[in-house]
Amino acid sequence: MRKIFLNLKNVKYPIYIGKEIFDRFPQICKRHGIKSHLAVITDKIVADLYLDEFLRLMTKNGFYPEPIIVNAGESSKSLSVVSKIYTNLIEMKLRRDESVVAFGGGVIGDLAGFISATYLRGVNLIHIPTTLLAQIDSSIGGKVGINHKLGKNLIGAFYHPVFIFTDVAFLKTLPKRELICGLGEVVKYGVIMDKEIFKTVEAELEKILNFDLKIIEPLVFKSIQIKTSIVEKDEREKKLRMILNFGHTIGHGIEAGLNYKRLKHGEAVMFGIVGESFIAFERGILKKDDFEKIKKLVFKVGVNFPKKILAKDVVLKHIGYDKKIYSERLNMYLPVKIGKMKFFNDVGFGEIERAIEFLFDQN
Amino acid sequence: MRKIFLNLKNVKYPIYIGKEIFDRFPQICKRHGIKSHLAVITDKIVADLYLDEFLRLMTKNGFYPEPIIVNAGESSKSLSVVSKIYTNLIEMKLRRDESVVAFGGGVIGDLAGFISATYLRGVNLIHIPTTLLAQIDSSIGGKVGINHKLGKNLIGAFYHPVFIFTDVAFLKTLPKRELICGLGEVVKYGVIMDKEIFKTVEAELEKILNFDLKIIEPLVFKSIQIKTSIVEKDEREKKLRMILNFGHTIGHGIEAGLNYKRLKHGEAVMFGIVGESFIAFERGILKKDDFEKIKKLVFKVGVNFPKKILAKDVVLKHIGYDKKIYSERLNMYLPVKIGKMKFFNDVGFGEIERAIEFLFDQN
C-alpha cells in the first residue's frame, strides 16, 4: 500500500492506494479518529458485490455502519434523492462528528460528497472509489455535486474527504465499458503530462482491457499523482486546472449532443481528445506523428464514434450554447507533443467545427 | 459609516455599518469587484418596502440586478424553495463569478447563503441584513442553511460573504416584535461579554422600543464587535463559540415545545437567558443582584411567558431528546456576573428542570 498526499492551502489528506487492501480499511479509519457510527452510501451494483464484505469487516472491527443504497446511475444525482438521504441520516441520528463513506463510482462520490458537505453543515467524508474513473479523477479535488433538470453538476460545493481509500482490486468486477471510460482519462493524463503513461497504455492495451491489475495499479498510481499535482497547483479551477479539461470541450458537446445517452462521459472524452488534438495538429503545433498516435490509440480501444445517431450541428450547439460565441475565442490547453500542453486563448469556433467534422469523417 | 473586519483563518471580509448609508451600496460593490449582473434574493415584506429603491439604485449605477422574491417566514427555508431558486438562477444564467445578494432577515440570509454556497459550487454572496437579529447575529459567522421536516437547520454549510452591508435605517420599518427578538440577542451579548451594553439597554429600553436609531446604532455596532470577536476566536462552533449559545438550551426547548409557533426565536431565547441565569444563581456563582437585574430587564421588554399553552415536560423532552441524557452532564457557559461567563461541563438535567419550573412560576 502506498500513500499520496493532497496538499492544499487549507487542508491536507492522504490517498491510500494498493491492491487487495480492503481489510486494512478499518484500521485506517481508526488512525484518522473516525467514530464508530457511520453511514455508508452506495449503489445497488456495488452493494450486491461488496456491501456484505464491508459491513462484516467494519462490524468485526467495532464499527457500526448503516448503509444507504441508491439506484446505480446518474439519475441518483438529484435533489429528490438528496432529500431522502437527509431523512435517512437524521433518522439514524448521524452526528456532526460522525462520518459518511462514499462507496462507489463517480456518481456516489459526487452525491455522498454533496450530502457530507451539507448535512449538519458538514460531516466527515471518506471516499472509497470503486471505478477506474472515480479512483483517478472524480474522487480527487473536492468537487462534489448533483444535477439539475436544466444541466449537470450545477449544484454542488468544494468539499474534501478525511482520506481516500483506493483499492484497485475493486476494478476486477468493473464492466469493461466502465474500464474504458477510466482509460480515457488515463490517456488524457498521458497526453497532457506524462508520455510514459501514454506509452504504457499503447504497449499494454490488450492486458489492460483484460483487467490485468499488475499493469493497471501503477497506471492508477501515476494518474493520481498527476491529478493531485494539478489540483494542488490550482485548487479552484483557475487557469492551470483547465488543463484537466483537455478533451472535455468537444467531449461534452458529443455527450450532450446524444442527450447523455449511448456514450458514457469517458467515451465521449476520448473522442474529445482526438478532436482537440486535431485542432493542435491543424495549427501546426502538434506533429503529425504524435497526432496519429493519439488517434490510433483512441480508436484501438474499440468504441465506435456514434456518427449515425449524432448530428454535427447539435454537437456544435452544445459547445457554443448560443450564436454569440461563434465570434468569440475560447480558452483551451492544446497538446504540443504527447506529454506537454500549451495554453491558448484564441481557439476559434471554426477550428472546433472542423475538428468535429474530422471525427465524423473517421471510418 | 464604520467598518469591522471579520478575520478568519482562511477568509477576511468587512462589515460596513451605518445609518442611512443605502445609497453607498453600489460603490462598495464596485470596490469589491462585484460584477454587474447579480441576483437579489428577498422576501415579500422586504420587497414591498425596499426592492424598488434597491433596483433603481443599482440600475442607476450600472448594475443589472434580477430579483427573486420568496414568501416571508421560516417556511421558505426548505429544499423545495431552494430547488425553485436554483431554476431561477440557471434561467437568468447567473455565472460562477457573479453574485447573490441576500436582502432581508435571518431566513433570507440563511436561504440565500445556502444557495450561494451550492449553486455552481459557490458564487459570491453579499449580505444586506434588514432585521436587528440578522444585523447583529445571523448574518455574521458563515452559518447558512435550511430546515428539514424533521428539524431546523439540519441542512447547511459554512459559507462566508464577500462583505456584509448593515444599514440600521432598515430597522425603522421593523415590526416591534422583530425588534424585541433582536433585543434579546443584544441583552445576551451584554450578559456574556459587555456590561455596558446591558446598562444601556436597561437605561434606554423605552427609547429602543420606540425605534430610536441614535441609541440603536451604537448597540448594533458593539454587538457586531462582540459577535465577530467570538467567531474569530472559534470559527467552527467549538468550545468558545458555545458562549453564544447562552440562553439557547432552554430557549430552544421552549421554542420547540411550542412547535415553533407563538414565540419567536429571540423571544424564547430571552426566557432562556433568565432560565440559564437562574441555574448560575442557584449554584451560587451569580449574585442575586445581577440575577434580578437580568430577570427584570427581560420581563420589562414585555413578552409574556406562554405558561398556559406550554407543558413543562414537553420543554424538557425537547432539551433532553431522550431519557439517556437525564443522567448525563451538559456543557454550558453560565454567567458569573453581568458581562462575564464561565464554562461548566457538569450542568445536570435537574438544574435545567428547576430553571424551567422557575420560569413557569413567574407571572
TrEMBL record, chains A, B:
Keywords: Amino-acid biosynthesis, Aromatic amino acid biosynthesis, Cobalt, Cytoplasm, Lyase, Metal-binding, NAD, Nucleotide-binding, Zinc. Zn(2+) binds at E185, H248, H265. It is found in: Cytoplasm. InterPro entries: Dehydroquinate_synthase, DHQ_synth_AroB, DHQ_synth_fam, DHQS/DOIS_N, DHQS_C. NAD(+) binds at G106, V107, I108, G109, D110, T130, T131, K143, K152, F170, L171, K172, T173. Pathway: Metabolic intermediate biosynthesis; chorismate biosynthesis; chorismate from D-erythrose 4-phosphate and phosphoenolpyruvate: step 2/7. It comes from the Bacteria. This is 3-dehydroquinate synthase. Gene3D superfamilies: 3.40.50.1970, Dehydroquinate synthase-like - alpha domain (1.20.1090.10). GO terms for biological process: amino acid biosynthetic process; aromatic amino acid family biosynthetic process; chorismate biosynthetic process. Its cofactor is Co(2+); Zn(2+); NAD(+). Catalyzes the conversion of 3-deoxy-D-arabino-heptulosonate 7-phosphate (DAHP) to dehydroquinate (DHQ). The keyword NAD applies. It comes from Candidatus Chryseopegocella kryptomonas. GO terms for molecular function: 3-dehydroquinate synthase activity; metal ion binding; nucleotide binding. Residues 68-179 form the 3-dehydroquinate synthase N-terminal domain. It catalyses: 7-phospho-2-dehydro-3-deoxy-D-arabino-heptonate = 3-dehydroquinate + phosphate. GO terms for cellular component: cytoplasm. Its main location: cytoplasm. It is an enzyme of class 4 (lyase). Its EC number is 4.2.3.4. Belongs to the sugar phosphate cyclases superfamily. Dehydroquinate synthase family. Pfam families: DHQ_synthase (PF01761), DHQS_C (PF24621). Residues 182-324 form the 3-dehydroquinate synthase C-terminal domain. Binds 1 divalent metal cation per subunit. Can use either Co(2+) or Zn(2+).
